[in-house]
Design goal:
The complex is a heterodimer of chains A (313) and B (115).
Chain A lengths: L1 H28 L7 E5 L5 E5 L1 H23 L10 H25 L13 H22 L21 E9 L1 H19 L7 H12 L2 E7 L2 E6 L6 E5 L3 E9 L8 E5 L2 E5 L3 E8 L4 E5 L3 H15 L1
Parallel strand pairs in A: 9-11
Antiparallel strand pairs in A: 1-2, 3-4, 4-5, 5-6, 7-10, 8-9, 10-11
Chain B lengths: L1 E4 L7 H14 L8 E2 L2 H8 L3 H13 L3 E4 L3 E4 L3 H20 L4 H11 L1
Antiparallel strand pairs in B: 2-4, 3-4
Helix pairs in contact in B: 1-3, 1-4, 2-3
The chains are: A alpha+beta (313), B alpha+beta (115).
């Protein structure tokens, strides 16, 4: 319960506070601001740039709004290990508070000025205070998020109801006929180039053929040791993920554009092996990483993995 | 395909493995031409002796469901699904007959009368 309230404070109430500060400052001072208003000050503190009020308002409220949405999404994300969202929350808070603070500062300096050049001078102290406030807010939020464990917002983990004495093995795969055809075509081009006597130029089509062939077929196996993935028609090379590294498994659906990609990809702690769209197995790792693998009958695989993980722990 | 065996059950392990693979074939989870992992791998994954797996595969081969070739592993035969279903039904029929103390000759006679 405490955890939930802290999540709401970090993901909703604090972002709303900086958002209100930015919007309220402009709404309150709107008619007392020059048009355009001073938006930039030089090193000595004199105003040296201006923007239409509406533009400065859009920036001062828009950026904090995006940061607020970011903070909300981060706290509503799939559950991860305690503190896994602290860095993301720290940066959204820093940006949100800083830009909102600068907006409030701009309104204060422009207030009642007949035109932008007559705006008050930027005080170094005020600027430093805004930056320090953003830094301190970010540090506080990061500290509060360090022990925050996110509750599961998804359905219960799938299971195949494995009995305590039972042993099980699951085998399946994924195939992409188009990639297989492309591999054959590339190999054909390679042989044609070879026949023309340009051996060196045949390397590229052959390399493409090998790559396509690797991702045209996938074999996936789940047993008590973990998950093993074999590439290509011969299941080689092979990649293994030990059961001890897996926290939870789910069956998901990858759309055509989920990664916009066929092959193996790793991006920001998430990795995927995709040979086609559709059914996929999503593994949540103990270290916070996520690996998705396109494979048929993923629901059964996820159920078996969860049962095996539960048995081990 | 999900293969699950229970060493605590009264049914011998090789029969359990054969029944699971047969069920996978009849359900269409394993289709004609598909290769099973090598017996050694199946045995390691299931934590059983390799001979237990080979015995299960020999049963399936005798039933005309799979083909075993040295060095090429175990592959599912073309018309596996309908045949696997028939074998399953035939085995169920035999088991039922045995429970009712019906001999093989009487069972044959019954089938002839029905056809």
């Amino acid at each position: 319960m405490m955890n939930n309230r802290r999540r709401d404070v970090l993901g909703i109430f604090i972002p709303i506070a900086w958002l209100i500060a930015a919007v309220a400052a402009f709404l309150w001072g709107w008619h007392r601001l020059p048009e355009p208003m001073a938006s930039h000050w030089n090193a000595t503190g004199s105003p040296n740039g201006a923007l239409p009020r509406i533009s400065l308002f859009a920036i001062s409220a828009g950026v904090p709004l995006l940061a607020a949405i970011g903070a909300f999404v981060v706290t509503r994300r799939a559950p991860g290990p305690a503190g896994s969202i602290a860095p993301a929350l720290a940066s959204t808070t820093f940006i949100g508070v800083l830009v909102a603070g600068l907006g409030v500062l701009s309104v204060a300096l422009n207030l009642d000025a007949p035109e932008w050049r007559a705006a008050r001078e930027m005080s170094f102290l005020a600027l430093a205070a805004t930056i320090v406030a953003a830094g301190a807010g970010s540090a506080l939020v990061s500290r509060a998020a360090r022990t925050l464990e996110l509750p599961s917002l998804r359905r219960a983990a799938p299971s195949v109801g494995l009995a305590a004495t039972e042993r099980a093995l699951w085998i399946s795969g994924a195939h992409n006929r188009w990639l297989a055809l492309l591999a054959i075509a590339s190999a054909g081009i390679g042989f044609a180039v070879l026949a023309m006597g340009a051996a060196w130029h045949a390397i590229t089509p052959f390399a493409v053929a090998v790559l396509m062939a690797l991702f045209a077929h996938l074999r996936v196996r789940v047993d008590a040791s973990g998950v093993s993935i074999g590439f290509g028609a011969w299941g080689l090379p092979r990649m293994s993920i030990a059961l001890a590294r897996i926290r939870r498994a789910d069956a998901i659906h990858l759309s055509r554009f989920s990664w916009g990609y066929r092959g193996s990809i790793r991006l920001a702690g998430r990795a995927a092996i995709i040979v086609r769209r559709g059914e996929a197995l999503r593994l949540e790792l103990v270290d916070g990483g996520i690996l998705s693998i396109t494979v048929d009958d993923a629901e059964t695989a996820a159920g078996l993995i969860n049962d095996l993980v539960a048995r081990k722990s | 395909m999900l293969l699950r065996i229970d060493p605590a059950s009264d049914i011998p392990l090789h029969e359990q493995i054969a029944a699971q693979i047969r069920r996978a074939i009849s359900d269409g989870k394993l289709s004609g031409g598909e290769q099973l992992p090598p017996a050694r791998e199946l045995a390691t994954s299931l934590g059983v002796n390799m001979h237990t797996v080979l015995r299960a595969c020999a049963t399936l081969r005798d039933e005309g469901l799979v083909e075993m070739r040295p060095g090429r592993g175990i592959s599912v035969l073309g018309k596996g699904a309908p045949r696997a279903r028939l074998v399953e039904l035939a085995r169920a029929l035999l088991a039922e007959a045995r429970r009712n103390s019906l001999g093989l000759r009487e069972l044959k006679k019954l089938l002839e009368e029905l056809s």
